[in-house]
Amino acid sequence: xxxTLSVNGQRHTVDVEPATPLLYVLxxxxxxHGPRFGCGLGQCGACTVIIKGEAxxxxxxxxxxxxxxxxxxxEGLAKNGVLHPVQQAWIDEQVxxxxxxxxxQIMTAKALLDRTPNPTDAQIRQGMAGTLCRCMTYYxxxxxxxxxxxxxxxxxxxxxxxxxx
Amino acid sequence: MTAFTNIPxxxxxxxxxxxxxxSRRDFLRTSGLLVVSAVSVxxxxxxxxxxAQGAGAxxxxxxxxxxxxxxxxxxxxxxxxxxxxxxxKTDLGQGTGTAFRQIMADxxxxxxxxxxxxxxxxxxxxxxxxxxxxxxxQTDGVPMRRxxxxxxxxxxxxxxxxxxxxxxxxxxxxxVVSVAADPSKRVTYGQLIGGRRFxxxxxxxxxxxxxxxxxxxxxxxxxxxxxxPQRYDIPAKVDGxxxxxxxxxxxxxxxxxxVKPPVAGAKLISADESSVSKLPGFVKLVVKGNYVAVVCERxxxxxxxxxxxxxxxxxxxxxxxxxxxxxxxxxxxxxxxxGSAPAVSGNPDAAFAAAxxxxxxDYEVPFQGHTAFGPAHATADPSNDQLTIYSNDxxxxxxxxxxxxxxxxPRDRVRVVWMEGPQAYGRTAADDAGFEAAFLAKELGRxxxxxxxxxxxxxxxTKGPAYTFRMxxxxxAQGNLTALDYAARALDHNHLGYNEPDTVLIAQxxxxxxxxxxxxxxxxxxxxxxxxxxxTLAQVVGLPMVWETPLRTGNLRDPDGPQVTFASESFIxxxxxxxxxxxxxxxxxxxxxxxxDDGNFKRARSIAVIKAAAExxxxxxxxxxxxxxxxxxxxxxxxxxxxxxxxxxxxxxEVEVNRRTGHVWVKRLVCAHDCGLVVNPEALHRTIEGGxxxxxxxxxHEEVTFDTEKVTSVDWITHPTLTHADTPAQIDVLLINADxxxxxxxxxxxxxGETVCKPLxxxxxxxxxxxxxxxxxxxxxxxxxVLAALKTEGV
Lengths: 165, 795
Known about the structure:
By secondary structure, chain A is of the alpha+beta class. Chain A has helices at 22-29, 85-92, 102-115, 121-128, 138-154; strands at 2-7, 10-15, 48-51, 54-57, 70-72. Chain A is globular, with a radius of gyration of 16 Å.
């Protein structure tokens, strides 16, 4: 069955079974490397993408549920060659160890900050609690989220549209 | 000229990206060395070494070992005075690649950003064993400094000839050699040797002892070591551009998924191919012994087919193991397979008989899994009767040798291209998926990608051994520790080695086993504390089922340290409490009771890290427990200390224990850490933080559960892990250099990483005791277990 998606602003049409999880289409048909398989159960967050402003676990989202959807992945956060403030904060804080989970951390944090631009510590902990990291970089991730929140606040809407994906 | 057969451009780009920054790639291109790919960059010196074969021949194999006695095997200088370093280690995310660039650039007198690093791919880097033991800098950093120093010496000799000035009268800065008396006379590294071979033979019997004639720099001469350049691997991990081992795609590649036995030791009677052969994309059902895999064109098709395959399995006649709730009783009653005689010093029996007080305690640590964030995976390409395996194996060289033996191929027909992957911490030392991909690729005659599912990985990965401990201590009337009796049992029979062709899971399932399983080991704590009378016993016990079991043990981030240190450092605290002594002062007294040392001033450095941690924490001396609070939240502090190899650490945890829920939150962690010479302080900070929190996850959450025939902890719900919600509010890391002569020119770099995993269990247990007066002697400290302990003790 044919499905059409917009991924990071580009249209893709694929012919797959309706039950196919979005993750495999993004990885194997669109050729993306940001979303990754971690559990296939929606428990860890490695496969996270953003649809309609929500962090979505693509490993449990069937293609039948995303017909025509506009999807942003890690690869789509940077605009005009400039990293998203969340990504820049990740580099400034030197967050990743192995980095395998960081797609989920960054995408979940991005959605969190779009929803809650100036989160409290408790909101960060709660908002990120379902996004796992086995190198346990949580301490630096939380610092990076605060750093990104500051950067996004100082880059006011009139200063440019490069901040929000 | 195409250097490599059957590696599509996309993969070449991947490997190119691993080499470093975009500018780095650009100058490689412009320098003419980047022929078609990073692999060919990696081979740039290789084809210089073997001009008769040419680049194409090298790319197509065979893949002989790199000669560690050739300087060209380690370093290539390019025409633009940049350098590529070839390092036979793998970077698991702690920044060792960045650190190698620092130490080698420093010796070579080249700016850090003009260097790049190729790691762990078996045909382009010398076999330095890959990673393990946190020894990358401690062991392998030493020859890397020497070869870089030798390259500098050779370059200065060349410059001396070119400039007509004796070498001692030359100055070198950032790859430019000039006459000290007349800096206008100068020549660059690139002009001297760019793109050509050194042709310098080194000496040494093995990679660790490789050396040239040059001396390495003194501590005072180092400029880049001790700085914190940002890790070069991070940007591509953040912008989505990195291609990981999981991302490899090859022409004609198919996807495989395993079908594991439903219970341990089950024998396959039949697998019904017709149950899956009509499914879309079906390619092949592969069955050999009890190893079963389904291969399909697309990934989700293979997943579906593996789920739908109808197979008949026969359960073993006897239960393969006790259920996890009976594990510790089983371990205490089982007959040991090794370790019958204790080590005795002094006269412990007499000391216990004369004691004013005898303290006894038992401790228990269950099996804990690696539970890698991404399940096992690899892709193998069998083109040209050779095998190329794309893998995140931390021990890529072992995988290459193991696969060659497993498939009875010459070693030089197999290579492993190392790529980034999820946290391993010992898991990929037994790289099941690498062997499976290789086997399946050979079986199908086309590239195969295999990946385990979450339930497979969590149930069937290698496990850190379970431990039971029985501790006894004797105190005299003054509260001095006069005797210590340590008895440990580790469930560790058939501990897996490093990618051995007869111990990886696929080999076991195929019935390819060695006659005698590995004996396994049980560890003992350090004897740095001065105790006049000791008895130390460490025994291994096994399970009824030795092979084909999901309870196979492997090396989990300091294989025995967290378990052993949980018992030893908890018990020291119990003794301190019995003696009504402050836990810090009690430890310092035991450390200062002697002036003996066991090398590299370990005792002095132990004292220093304990004092530094206590000072940073603001430790007020008093016995534990402190006054028990009245409200729901009880707070306390606990210290623990350990060393591994030559690295010493002290950790202090401050906890909040919720009296109503049993929840333990470690609010603050302090770590004082002495690993000698620090190469990259910022990267080390993060390695220490991550290591402590990984250990905290094991302290609070992690336990493998099983019934009598299968593992029942199979995902992140049933095998929980630390989350953002548990993260301490504050982590203080102190990097100490407590060498008695901290500025000695030859201050060594010791290892870092695993040491910090050791003390954490006990630091938390000691803090919970300090807060509540309740001693937790069984890991993990899940809410229900803590709450039950609080209720039992009436807290």
